[in-house]
Amino acid sequence: MTFHQRNGEQYSLTNEDIIQYAEKGYVVLPDVISNDEIAFIEQWFDHFVAGNESHRMARDFCDMSQPYGTPIEEFQLVNAMLPSKYCPELANNIFHRVAQNITDQLYTRGKALLDYEQFLAKKPNKSGAEFAMHQDLGYWPKTANTWTATFSLAITPSTLENGCLQVISGSNKEPELRKHVPKPYRNIDNIGKTNAVSRDDSHLLVIHNETGDKIQHLPVTRGSVTVHDERIIHGSSGNLSDDWRKTYVMAFRDSETIKQERGAGFTHSHNDKVNWNEFIR
Ligand SMILES: O=C(O)CCC(=O)C(=O)O
């Protein structure tokens, strides 16, 4: 039996991890970041989620379950994009360095680097704090090489009750990306009518579930990590617990892909001025 091992900034994957990631589109890695290391990250996490940088983040501080313009007091699924851009003290932190080491083991046909990061927090007792099921590639511009490893570090335990990550294992092998559309929200003034929205109204995209979709939940302990690829269907439910769910997301992509994205003005900031029509899949 092979065990995972953290040694300095290295975390050794097993052959089974590498095969599962390629075949099923995800892997769960226990005990990647220690309690002491998380304490540093959590201070910054709480700083952002409390809205302390919101005055200079515009749409990079938003709710991933509700349209832009939702008042901060009503947020359920708090999203702070690109925290190291706003507070460079966080850049190249221990999670970044260990995740880079793991990425280098998963991706050997080129060099993948950190493309973007985000803090995601589900407030306690918010059944609406759902992250609708999607494929990450549905959110991004077309690029020649799509390879991605997206890491979710559990800053708090991630459980069934607080809305842990859920995946459809193996859906990364579907030949076509599913159709993603902006989430329609009910117009409260016009009960019964549903507003059609564009990506300028809300960042959130949704897909249609298909019969046969089998959801698998991925609960993890504090300090553990899930890694998912760009094609696997995934999302998460609301938080029915009395505690926060806090997650630090980091995505690594091929260095040439990152160059292509930046060339098209795409930095993963919600403030990017992107012509989405050019990116339609
Ligand atoms: O952790 C979650 O609740 C969802 C995160 C997610 O969808 C992503 O990182 O792509």
From TrEMBL:
Pfam families tied to this protein: PhyH
SUPFAM superfamilies: Clavaminate synthase-like
Organism: Thalassotalea psychrophila
Origin: domain of life: Bacteria
Keyword field contains Chloroplast: no
One example GO MF annotation: dioxygenase activity
Identification of the protein by name: Phytanoyl-CoA dioxygenase family protein
Keyword terms: Dioxygenase, Oxidoreductase
